[in-house]
Design a protein that fits this description.
Belongs to the AceK family. InterPro entries: AceK_kinase (IPR046855), AceK_regulatory (IPR046854), Isocitrate_DH_AceK (IPR010452). With about 625 residues, the protein is α+β, with helices and mostly antiparallel strands. It has 4 domains: about 110 residues; about 150 residues, no CATH class; about 120 residues, 2-Layer Sandwich (Phosphorylase Kinase, domain 1); about 140 residues, no CATH class. Helix content is about 40%, strand content about 15%. Strands 1, 2, 3, 4, 5, 6 and 7 form a 7-stranded antiparallel β-sheet that branches. Strands 8, 9, 10, 11, 12 and 13 form a 6-stranded antiparallel β-sheet that branches. A 3-stranded antiparallel β-sheet has the order 14-16-17. It is globular.
Amino acid sequence: MSVFPQRLDSPLAYDIARAMLDGFNRHYRLFRTESARAKHRFETADWHGQQRAQRERIQFYDLRVREAVTRLEKEFRAGDQPMDVWQQVKLHYIGLLVDHHQPELAETFFNSVTCKILHRTHFHNDFIFVRPAVSTEYIENEEPAAKPTYRSYYPTRDTLQDTIERIVDNYQLQRPFEDLPRDAGYVIEAMSARLAQVKLRANFQIQVLSSLFYRNKGAYVVGKLINGFNEVPFALPILHNKQGRLIIDTVLFGEDDLQALFSFARAYFMVDMEIPSAYVQFLRSLMPRKPRNEIYNALGLAKQGKTLFYRDLLYHLRHSSDKFRIAPGIKGMVMLVFDLPSFPYVFKLIKDYYPPQKDTTREQIKGKYLLVKQHDRVGRMADTLEYSEVAFARERIEEELLEEIRKFAPSQLEISDRDGDGHEEVIIKHLYIERRMIPLNIYLQEAFDALQAAAPGSLAGQHAHDQIERAVIEYGNAIKDLVSANIFPGDMLWKNFGVTRNGKVVFYDYDEIEYLTDCNFRKVPKAHNEEEELSGEVWYNVGPRDVFPETFGPFLLGNTAVREVFMQHHGDLLDPAFWLDRKDRILAGHVHDVFPYDRAKRFARRYAAAPAGAGALEFTA
């Protein structure tokens, strides 16, 4: 149990706490300013600027932590202060957070700065916030000019369309809509399936968050319909059309659609938030199954996401007894992967030794993971949480896993009683953690086995065939989405892709990725003679970034069922012309549209010939 001083008698402790909070306030002010500028970038169609800002904002936190450490060392020689002063620093800091609007983020900032100054390399000690000390419940900005977290609208059956228009108008986008009344009509028509035969209760209302959510080329209204005991989450994507005017592209309904929009495989949103915890609370009401750490991540607050994830892991370990093991599936050449069966994440560490065909280094691999963190992941690359010096109880590690780490990554392993509490710990020096998915090769093999076991023409056989078809189509779609984002996966084997709970195929092996624009896509040269043609060796010159799409087939399409589906839907991936065309468009400055929803949902497809204002909705009383 922590022992804190009875009295706060160190003036220096207060000054350190105040300076620490000044550092956080500067960080959040800059973070919020950059997020708010996303509105102007959207209005002016500055897509490259939006991508650049999303990349650069990720680095804000570490820069501000370094600034704060430098100031505290320079002004207070903070690292030389005795522990009783640091205990008082924490208590003063808690006092300063009582009326703060981002207390949970400020606590995490305190942890980051304190661990650097005190050279604490693990989470358990008296001088940081292992648990939150200040509540985030019911925080609101009471200043008269402040925006509320969300706005509530109270339409009637006659004013619903006007209300949708007013909701969108209230965001004051400085660019004209092509036809907002028409689009609002489409939104109302889309709502009809949920509301047409429903009695509107006394509390019927629409609640929307006060700031738009910006990402890539889209801006999203996020809210919910409330009627009686029912709440329906929704989002309205606002895009530019080809003429540069704004349109509401579709309406997304329900938790699954919102989960896809806020997926861990997508880039972070830019959102101007005074009180982030209130946004998280509202979003959790729309997606109750989504962990809070993933919502903070989606809002660009990745350090807070890491803090919450680690607290969730510690809590889970306290309430479980299974052991960490080598993850099922084909072992990687570069990454050693393990998991805890009861916990839906995998843990990855970089090996010390790689086979000769993997010409890489630890620093290069870390660079690839950083590239993915800062890049637009377009729903096809899993986000990763990166940790250093992670301690696990020795008794929770299977012996086989420990031996694997000793064999392949000894530099990453320490076994000691670091806390001095009599319990031995396994400490991993550097670790990536990401959502667990079913490896695509295992997913397909399960379908092959089911197909083989099923009677001809049976329902089970059809189900297995459908599973293969969906997976192969999704695999090709995943590669094409990555290509649109200027990413060449490098190693395209099935084992490097995973299947999410919703059947989405996501890439998760990053050690060979390259920018598409850095690759040379070539046709395999014609053989000069029969000897070259029949040779099992490559007889032509291959540069370090040369790619021969025709050669993908033998590695990927050995199974007949897979080959048929692949060639029908994605045969163009075996043609260098496909890759060269995408590369040329990216080099010309084109930013592709990659939608976080099925294109079939787009109003432009559903109402191609509909007149303006179509879609008025009648409600029953």
